What does this fold into?
Amino acid sequence: MNKLQDYISQSNYVVFFGGAGVSTESGIPDFRSVDGLYNQQWKYPPEIMLSRSFFKSKTADFFDFYKKKLLHLDAQPNQAHIGLAALEMAGKLKAVITQNIDGLHQKAGSKNVLELHGSVWRNYCLDCKVAYEVDVVANATGIPICRCGGVIRPDVVLFDEQLDDDIMVAAMDHIARADMIIIGGTSLGVYPAAGLLQVFRGDRLVLINKSTTHMDNAADLIIRENIGDVFAKLSI
Ligand code: CNA
It folds into this structure.
C-alpha cells in the first residue's frame, strides 16, 4: 500500500484500466472467477450467449441471459469506483478505461470514462434507431420491441462485434501519455481491449487483481486483494 501511495504521489498522469472484477464487490458477477458467469450452468457459455450471431438467431434466449445476468440496475458503486472518482477530482487520474457495461464509474462521479464495451444504460431500436431508457428492456416480457416494430438492443459491444474506433483511439492516447497505469479487476483475456496496454510507456505499472494475468511479469507492483479494499485504504 505504501508503494502504491508513493507511486500515485510521484505521478501526474494516472490512467485506470479495469474490468468486471471492479464491480464484483458491488454484487455483479464477473466472467472468470469461481462464482463468475463461466462457472454457472447455462445452455451455452457467455461468449456464445453474448455474441452477435446468438443475438440474431436466438434473440429471446439472449435477452433471458442478458436480463438475468448483466442487468444489475440497483447495484451501487464500491470503494474502488468511489476512490477512482476521488483520484480524478484530485487531478491525478486522467481517464478510466473500462470493459464494464454497468455504468458504476459514472454513478460514483467519474467524468472521463471510456466504455470500451458500451453500456447497459443506453438502448436503441435496430430499425428506426430511436433511443430507449434501460427500463424498457428490463421490464419487457421477452424481446423488447420498439413502437415501430423493431427489436430494441442494448448499446453494448457483443462478442464478434467491432469496438468503437473513436473510443479506442482516445483510450490509446491516454495510455500512451500516462506515467502510471493501474490495471484492476480484469483477466486481460478479452481482445482487442487488453491489447491497448501495449502502448503504455510509463514506468509505474500497477496490477490489482485477485488472480494472475499474462501481464504480471511486466508489473512494477502487484496487489492480490479485493480492489475495493485497496482503494478503501488509500488516502486521496
Ligand atoms: P473477467 O475475465 O471475468 O476477469 C475478472 C478478473 O477480476 C479476474 O481475473 C478476477 O480474478 C478479478 N477479480 C474479481 N473480483 C475482484 C476483486 N474484487 N478485486 C480484484 N480482482 C478481482 O472480466 P474482464 O473484465 O477481464 O473480461 C472482460 C469482459 C467481462 C468484458 O467484455 C465485460 O463487458 C464483461 N463483464 C462486465 C461486467 C460488468 O459490467 N460489471 C460483468 C461481467 C462481465
